[in-house]
Amino acid sequence: MAEAMTSTLTAAGLLDRERSVAGPRFNRWLVPPAALAIHLCIGMGYGFSVFWLPMSKLLGGTDEAACKSQSLLAEMVTTSCNWTVPAVTHTFEMFIAMLGFSAALWGGWLEHAGPRKAGFIAALCWGGGMILGGIGVSMHQLWLLWLGCGIVGGVGMGLGYISPVSTLIKWFPDRRGMATGFAIMGYGGGAMIGAPIAVALMKYFGNGVASNGVAATLIVMGILYFVAMSAGAFGMRIAPAGWKPAGWNPPAAGTVKAMITPHHVHLNVAWKTPQFWLIWGVLCVNVTAGIGVISMASPMLQDVFGGHLIGLDVRAELTPAQKAAVVASAAGLVGLISLFNSLGRIFWASVSDYIGRKVTYAVFFVLGMALYLSLPTLGHLAMAGLFVIAVCLILTMYGGGFATVPAYLADIFGTQMVGAIHGRLLTAWSVAGIVGPFLIAAVRQAQINAGIAHTLVYDRTLYILAGLLLVGLVCNLLVRPVNPKHYMSAEQLAREKTLQHEDRMVGDAEHAARGAFGIVGVLAWAAIGIPFLIGVAIAIQKAAVLF
Length: 547
What we know:
Helices cover 70% and strands 0% of the residues. It has 547 residues and is an all-alpha fold. It is globular, with a radius of gyration of 24 Å.
């Protein structure tokens, strides 16, 4: 499918892997902003919640009594009843599931095709999927919204997520964690930029009524994202075989850290090793715990602290105006979550370059258990400020887990096929994206049904999540270097390099990418940094309500 979509452009050579080899004037610090351009766009997936309520109010004058009895199948094609919020939120579940599925399915192809071709297809799918979803909204066809934003967009999200990974790791062999942290930071922060834009566009196109502007907003944002992601894809460059940063030399044989291999493991072998499944468990548990908190952060804050968020007693009866103020205060937590989720990715991934990936995950699990176990006590003591700080720290480690795992895989399995191996590993995210929210919602409802006070309904869930982190800690401690029998032989490695067209890549490894940062570097980072900082400012402004 991917080959057919780009046959015309490939004939012209624009997307060929060998056409994207860096020349002598290139600078490796131009690769992170290209990767960020892709990740900041697909990171809007975290901000799609701004569409759910307006999507449920697209039609006026509907027969609500008759609409309540319709089935989900009827809801998929109805033009006379509004969609329910649960029905439209299936879009989120679909593109998260497709992210893992497409990354696992096409990860091997991506390694051979290169980041430029994969990034461009990601732009077509993510941008085109949003446009198709906008058409579905304008026609009021739920199935078309699911197909566009959920399925097609999810494929674009998966390819866009993993396409820069192996490229960045090869450009930054001296700082693997920091390099992948930069790109994946963009995914965590995409909602900080995209959500305010979406809200403003819905207001503009809807003449103040958000529901009237949903379709046009999706279409316009799809076009904007296609352009930005395409620019990122064409900005990607590949390091010639044998390239290394000036003044840096790989550790000599016998001095390499025990957990970092100079060898390579093939994708078809890597996923069958115990190391792969232990790291899969590490990521799955870390994400399950974090996403469980993300999915219920705002209602958890409201249930636990209630009127205390606006200076009243926790048990005080609230007026409608006071309830609205509590909701607004808790909503500020969403902005903080996005900010700490994003910044935690670059922080922890960079730290892992110095203390090691295994130690970094050990910190996640030990510190995480302490924080999860402390949350119920902080809630009982009505210490809202410390509660929020603890949640934000948890979210830095949630994001940090995503950013650190590509470097962890490169350490264990080598760099030759790390993008494809990372794609397979992301199925852990798909599983966690279902298990985490379901677990915390189910336990919460069971506690409410048992008559537990709303201020206490999250205690058991938080203790369960702390227990899950203990499982993750054990998995992490069991990770050992791969058995040498799994390494690719010289012949296998040569064949893989041929499949990646390295034999046709003309590049001077000694002199490539020695250019100055210059005005191009300043402009590239400004194009990414300015919108990101604006998003940070908006998130801080909204979160200020909490304090």
